[in-house]
């Protein structure tokens, strides 16, 4: 280890307020061309290059170019993140653990009032089917979006996720049009009409 630099002059009570002579700092001299050519100049590297972020943005945009779950396209649609929506339309009719479908179970609990062959209140069956279809689509939408985000964030933590959230909001609004609120309003309207029909069939 090199020794510390010693003082060039002694400071005491006799000379503490005297001005010291300025040292000559010298002049800058540029190295010769031959010396510069022999030197090795290293450049710093980024751990996450900017190109990976740009490529990640492009990947996000291209992942949503083929969404055709709610619209009809003239050209055959390409595979997309939300292509599952076309396959879960009839998921409410899949067999349960007891081996019977939801529709069959609803038929068994269906009660026919009076001697009529038609039910006066068929709304429970229709609303249940619509509700099951809505929740099946919502479940599939959330699971696929969560899986897509996890896969792409693991591949590139700097990816831009704004496009997928915009598309998710669009598809969620489409599902809300078929959601419980729309089903409830439709059922209430039908019940009012059927109540009027029921009163006409009652005889005192």
Strand/helix succession = HHHHHH
Please tell me how large the radius of gyration is: 38 Å
What number of structural domains do the residues give?
1
Shape estimate: elongated
Low-confidence parts lasting 5 or more residues at pLDDT below 50? Answer: 55-60
Number of helices: 6
What is the subunit arrangement here?
A: single chain
Strand content is under 5%
The computed structural class is: mainly alpha
Instruction: Estimate the mean pLDDT confidence.
Output: 67
**End-to-end C-alpha gap:** 115 Å
Largest sheet: none
Q: Count all strands and give the number.
A: 0
Query: Helicity level, as a percent range?
Result: 40-55%
Biased composition (Polar residues): 1-10
Protein name: Nuclear pore complex NUP2/50/61 domain-containing protein
Biased composition (Basic residues): 38-48
Organism: Aromia moschata
Give a written overview of the molecule.
The protein has six helices and no strands. With 204 residues, the protein is mainly α. It has one domain. The radius of gyration is 38 Å and the shape is elongated. The protein starts with 32 loop residues before the first helix and ends with a helix. About 3% of the residues have low confidence.
Could you give a short description of this structure?
The protein has 204 residues and is mostly helical. It has helices spanning 33-38, 50-62, 102-108, 123-155, 162-176, 180-201. The N and C termini lie far apart (115 Å).
């Amino acid at each position: 280890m090199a020794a510390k630099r010693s003082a060039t002059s002694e400071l005491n009570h006799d000379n503490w307020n005297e001005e010291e002579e300025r040292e000559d700092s010298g002049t800058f001299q540029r190295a010769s061309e031959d010396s510069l050519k022999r030197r090795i100049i290293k450049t710093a590297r980024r751990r996450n290059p900017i190109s990976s972020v740009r490529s990640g943005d492009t990947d996000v945009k291209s992942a949503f170019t083929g969404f055709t779950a709610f619209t009809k396209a003239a050209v055959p649609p390409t595979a997309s993140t939300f292509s599952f929506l076309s396959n879960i339309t009839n998921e409410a009719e899949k067999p349960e653990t007891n081996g019977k479908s939801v529709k069959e179970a609803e038929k068994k609990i269906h009660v026919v009032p009076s001697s009529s062959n038609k039910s006066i209140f068929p709304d429970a069956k229709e609303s249940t089917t619509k509700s099951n279809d809505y929740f099946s689509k919502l479940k599939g939408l959330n699971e696929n979006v969560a899986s897509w985000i996890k896969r792409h964030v693991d591949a590139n933590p700097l990816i831009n996720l704004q496009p997928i959230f915009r598309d998710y909001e669009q598809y969620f609004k489409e599902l809300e049009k078929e959601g419980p609120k729309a089903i409830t309003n439709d059922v209430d309207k039908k019940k009012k009409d059927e109540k009027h029909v029921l009163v006409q069939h009652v005889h005192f």
